[in-house]
Structure formats: C-alpha cells, structure tokens
Amino acid sequence: MNPGQPALPVLKARAQPPDAPELLHLNPALTTRWLEEFLRHEVTFRRGFHKVVIGISGGVDSALVAYLCARALGPERVVGIRMPYKTSNPESLAHGRLVTEALGIEEDTIDITPMVDGYLANDPEADGRRRGNVMARSRMIVLFDRSERFHALPIGTGNKSERLFGYFTWHADDSPPINPLGDLYKTQVWQLARYLGVPEPVVDKPASADLVVGQTDEADFGISYALADRILHYLLSGYPVDWLTRHGFSAADVALVKRRLDSTHWKRHLSTFAMLSSTSIHDYYLRPVDY
Amino acid sequence: MEWHVAVAQLRPKKGDYPATLAHLGDVLAQLEASDEPLDVLVLPEMALTGYFLQGGVAEVARPAEQFLDELTTLFRQVTHRGRPPLDIVIGFPERHDSRLYNAVLYATLSREEGRSIIHHVHRKIFLPTYGVFDEKRYVNRGRELTPFETRAGRVGMLICEDAWHTITGTVLALGGAQIVYIPVASPARGFTGAVVTNVARWHRLAQSMAEEHAVFVVTANLVGFEGGKGFIGASIVVNPAGEIMVQGPVGEECMLRATLDLDEIAIARASLPLLGDLESQLPDLLHALRHAASPHGEGGPP
To answer: In chain A, what are the domains?
Structure first.
C-alpha cells in the first residue's frame, strides 16, 4: 500500500433506466425515408396503384400518414377523406382541413350521419360502444368505396400502441391493405409528426377516437401512452413482469398493459377457421402476401 | 493479380420470375455496355425469386444445372460475340436430391456451346428460424463448407446467417479462401441509431472477417420490400485490411464495381499474420473445440 497514492479513476457502465428518453426515440430522417420507400414500393411497384385515399380524422395518426404519402407519391396522388358524424368534435373536421390544406392534397368530405343513423334507427337503444363500432365500420365502407371511385388504394393509419391494446374496431380501422404506422408506437408517431411539420394543433391535442363526446385514449386506457409504450416495448422484447417491476414500473401499470395485450391477440389476426385437412390455409398452405 | 468485381444490389419482382430474370438481363446488358473489365458478377441471396417464399419455395426451386442453363441463355442473349466468360455468384432456391435448399451458385457463363460450368454450390448452413425468419420449416440445411478453385484462386461462399458465426469465415480462410462472397437478404430493423441497426451489424461482420483473416469480403444484399419488410442493401466490398472499398446505398438498387488486387492479401498477412498464428495453434484449438462440443467433456481436458 502506498499512502497518498491517488485512487484509480472509476468508470461505471451506464445502466439505461427504463425511463431513458432515447429508449423509443427514432432517427426521424432515416425512418421517414424508409416509410416513404415502403409506400412507393407497396403502392406502385407491387400493386400498380398511383393514387391513395386516407381517412383524415383530424388526429395525428392519419395526419402523419397523409404527410408520408404526400412525400412518397406526391400530393397530387393523395386524397384525404373526412368522414364526420353529427356528434364528432367540430375541431376534428377543422384539424383535418389544416392537414389537407397544408399538404395541398385533394379533400373529400362524406358525412356518415345518414348511413349510421339509418342503420341505428332499427335499434335506437344501442349503447355508445355499438354506436362507435357502427361509425368505424361505416367509415371503412366509405373509404373502400371512395378508393374504388378514385382508382386508389386505401392506406391504414393504426399505430402499434393501439394495435397492441386492441383499441380499434376489428375489420374497420385495421382493414386497409397497407399501413406505414403499424410498427410505430404512439409516442413515435408524435415524434415523427413533429419532425415532418404536421400542424401543431393536430400533434399537441390529446389523442381521441372521437366516437363519444369528450373521449380521450389515455382516459379510456387509464395510463399514458408515454408509460404504456415503454411497458409494451419491454414486454414485447421478452422481459418478464417481475423485471419491469424491479426496474421502476408500478405493478398496477404493468398489469394493466399486460391484461390489454394478452386479451386482444385475436384482434390482430384474421378469423379463426376450423381446420379439417392438411391443406388448411395459413396452417399448412403457407404463402406470403406478395407471392 | 487484379480481379474485377461487380455487385448488383437487386430488387426482384417477387412472384414474377420471368420479369426478374429479364431484369438480370438488363444488368448484364449494362455491364456489357461498359468498357471496364469484369471478371465476376455477385448477386444477393434468392436474387431472382425474393426471399420470403414460405411454401412457394417448392414451386420456384430448380436444380443448379437448370439454373445454369437459364443464366447461360440470358448471357448469350445480352452479350456480344467475343465476350470472354463471366463468373457469377447468385443466390437461388435449389432442388437437389429431392430436397430443397437455400443455395448460392458459383458458375462461369460462356457464350460457347457447352462451356458454361458450375464450380460450386454452397447450401446455407445456418437457417435462421426465429422472429421474422422461418427457413428451417421450408428448406434443408447444408452440411458442407468448402472453399473451391476459380480463376481468382481459392474462394469461399457463405449465405447470410452463415456469416454471423465467425467460425465459418475461419473455416474458409483456413481452407485457403482468398475471397469470401456473401449473398444476403437482410430485412431492416432498428431505426433509433445513426444507421439502420443491421446495416451497421453487417458492416462490422464483413470488416471483421476480412481483417482477421486478410481476405477480401464481398457482400451482395437484396433490396425492395416484401410484405412490409424492406431489405437493407448497403452491399460492400472489403479489402484484407478490413477497409470498405465501396458501399451501396441503403434500400436502393445499384451496381458496385471494385478491382481487387489479390497481392494485397499476402502483404496484409505479412504485416499481421493472424491466420498463420491460427494455423500453428490449430491442433490445440481443435482439441479444445472437440471438448467444448462434447456435452460431457469427452476428449479429455482442453
């Protein structure tokens, strides 16, 4: 021992805390370029379409998709379709206009009130959940029909967080054949939307399905996207629940997210078919979507 | 000796083999129109069929001899009389002995009748079957890893995950390979860093292999999207010092050209004789390897 000898400098390995800001932070330029390439490839090269239709809700997801499509294909090849219902927040319609005007894309507005109310007249007692699903499925009908009219391909706008939470109407929001946002968490959608200059009122407002007056996603979930996305990221990466709770997440938050995730696998699949043969489609007869 | 290499970073028209074969014809015509000398054209894994085929692999797989005939016919169509033979490295789904393989063909294409020849077929050893990959379900694994003779001396071939295991590059280098050709189909994932995560990984792998063994490494990566999965491209040619000589763009079709000065191999090995060191230690290492590979430590202590 040499008294007075200075201690060796200590360098500690950096442990990334679960709330590290860089955890889900994308390289926005790289991601944007890749998603543009995806759209050009899947729309034009693979399917031979030259135009797309997007349901413009006034929210950030559809706004981001419109921005990506306008960049990838040119604004003249993008049609934004606003589909208000009589109880929709008027702000949604106005925010949709902000997007179509900022991009200079064609705008089409179809009021779905007559078709929704026409059907619901048969069953005026239908609750909010059923009404919301009828609205979502009516919008799907309109989107696909407009796509036929414009000889265009419908583009999906659902993000990874809502896909994992099952927070969408089955065979409605999830039905378009192409979706550039499906592997982006909601917090990543916000990041990319800011990067691409989506109008601030659209990005900054609380996310809402706008199916019920005053509804917000995070109130429906009981957890913020910022927290839920991190928990989802770790669960999908294979980290067990007790690892998450040992690393600072509350057991209640983890349980909430895991319950949502585990109870909605069916929504991320096509129908379940009874298998009777060894040529059952998707069980034995396996061909990729683009083969 | 100089060896002139072209890498075609291709985007196949999946499900349309004739169209993609015609696209390869365009590539050959472009090379034919160039005044630059060319000895070998390197193409990606599953270059003409696309990568994610699932059960469709049985429908597009062909024997290497049939594939050679198709390539030779194309070569004759697009090249002019007097064109010297051209070597080609190309990934394809192979039907061999009533089995299916993810394979890569090394052949010499000739305009002269009956003069095109197959030098080697490498069948992928490491079949990724995890996450987005499901190869073991559809194709058989290759069992052999051997360098072979070409006009450029001994070379070796690996396919995609084969190269993620350092032992494969080591085996080829010990067998005398001076150039390692690696056709690749690598779908992009990881968009949080400065470059796509697996682009960086591929470059590290190829550069490490080249630098450790003082060999040239040529990767040819697929581009284009298949069912939302986009292949990275970013093909590279690496010299025996581990330096990238030329690099393709991420996600776009391109042609790389490089002239390999094979004398650089001996120079690099003289200044950093790692391969020679390995050869001299090989008996001890083989003993250790046998021990490590035995679940009960058979073969005595290492």
So the answer is: 28-209 (3.40.50.620)
